[in-house]
Amino acid sequence: MRFRHPDGSTVHLSYCTNVHPAETLEGVLAQLRDHCEPVRKRLGRDRLGIGLWLAKEAARALVTDPAALRGLRAELERRGLEVVTLNGFPYEGFGAEEVKYRVYTPDWTDPERLTHTTDLARLLAALLPDDVTEGSISTLPLAWRTGFDEEAAATARTALTTLAERLDALEELTGRSVRIALEPEPGCTVETTAHAIGPLSAVPGDRIGVCVDTCHLATSFEDPRTALAALAAAGVTVVKAQLSAALHAENPHLPEVREALAAFAEPRFLHQTRTLTAAGLRGTDDLDEAVAGGALPDGGPWRAHFHVPLHAPPAEPLTSTLPVLQDTLTRLVGGPEPRTRHLEVETYTWQALPPELRPRTRGQLADGIAAELTLARDLLTDLGLKELP
Fold first, then answer.
1. Are strands 238-243 and 208-213 parallel, antiparallel or unpaired?
2. In this predicted model, what pLDDT tens digit does every residue of 227-248 receive, in sequence order?
């Protein structure tokens, strides 16, 4: 979906396809048919943006077979879909029964992460619509925090510098500009937007910036105004933003609140949980650790890294951090010019919700994703952006 900002520029809204697990090119093509096109039709749009997730095997198949790449581009056009951004965070196995810490490998100390991201950049340059010259790719925030020392930091910095040089060369060759966005996430080396400033300032040029995920921002209790002002002051570009909402518990000391939270503790994804205390941010790596006992102070609200549907906050006594999303979006695109032009709804946890909240059919999932995009569209138009055909 495209929107005209009051300054005349185009802002793109998409939804991320990592909600539809697929490891192979055949699986990606099936996603377009079974999920993405039905969402577009529910919205009554001739064109829908998707934030494509290409796992290692699918990406490699496209890089090594130009005919397959041309076929994917043709399939996107045939189904009324367009791609201006990729989610390059998960490498493979995102649809596995247990993902947890595996999503952080390979990290930016591993040459394979550089190879994979370079492949994605080349693919995105070929998949961009004819009238679009800028693409974005979100990626993991360097590494999970444990074992990441000065030597690892230097290795990651070298990899990002090499990547920036390759992206410069790619633009010279294709005329398409692709930028990479580190996505701060709780528990990682770059956990907050503040943590992103140092590593990004060390990489020359402006090819590498930040992806602001509003679920992660809220989980770490970051204030959008303060966070975005600090990025701007440091000259760090917001390459893209992921529109998502975290799980919020106002009174975690109450037994009924703990019980409600426990329903969201599940074995597939990691749900880092945080609370803000007078001594600073405290947290656990997963939600079950928090609800089980005294691992986390419960004198103030808890927030968990669980991407809940934007349009359907959980029932009381829980809620979502949708207000953080709204505040962030206002500051990103509600001003005289947009701070970013790539927005992506990323609720990948539909099938990880408590059983009674999960969609039971493809149709129900498509309904939910369409409802999220409708909410995001309404937020944008309320800010003065005009939806384009």
1. parallel
2. 999 999 999 999 999 999 999 9
CA dist 44 to 40, 374, 387, Å?
6, 11, 13
**Residue range 192-212, pLDDT digits in tens:** 999 999 999 999 999 999 999
Place of tokens 């770059």: 190
The 3-state secondary structure of the chain, one letter per residue: CEEECCCCCEEEEEEEHHHCCCCCHHHHHHHHHHHHHHHHHHHCCCCEEEEECCCHHHHHHHHHCHHHHHHHHHHHHHCCEEEEEEECCCCCCCCCCCCHHHHHCCCCCCHHHHHHHHHHHHHHHHHCCCCCCEEEEEECCCCECCCCCHHHHHHHHHHHHHHHHHHHHHHHHHCCEEEEEECCCCCECCCCHHHHHHHHHCCCCCCEEEEEEHHHHHHCCCCHHHHHHHHHHHCCCEEEEEECEEEEECCCCCHHHHHHHHCCCCCCCCCCEEEEECCEEEEECCHHHHHHCCCCCCCCCEEEEEEECCCCCCCCCEEECHHHHHHHHHHHHCCCCCCCCEEEECCCCHHHCCHHHCCCCHHHHHHHHHHHHHHHHHHHHHCCCEECC
Residues 97, 208: Cα–Cα separation, whole Å: 32
Amino acid in the structure at residue 315:
A
Going by C-alpha positions, the residue among 79, 185, 177 that lies closest to residue 133 is 177
- Give the sign of the dihedral formed by CA 194, CA 179, CA 383, CA 7: positive
Cβ-contact 207, 168 below 8 angstroms: yes
Give 128-184 pLDDT, tens digit per residue. 999 999 999 999 999 999 999 999 999 999 999 999 999 999 999 999 999 999 999
- Distance CA(170)–CA(137), nearest Å, equals 14
Which tokens hold the place of 73? Answer: 């581009």
Q: At what angle do helices 224-234 and 193-201 cross, to 10 degrees?
A: 10
- Distance CA(125)–CA(135), nearest Å, equals 7
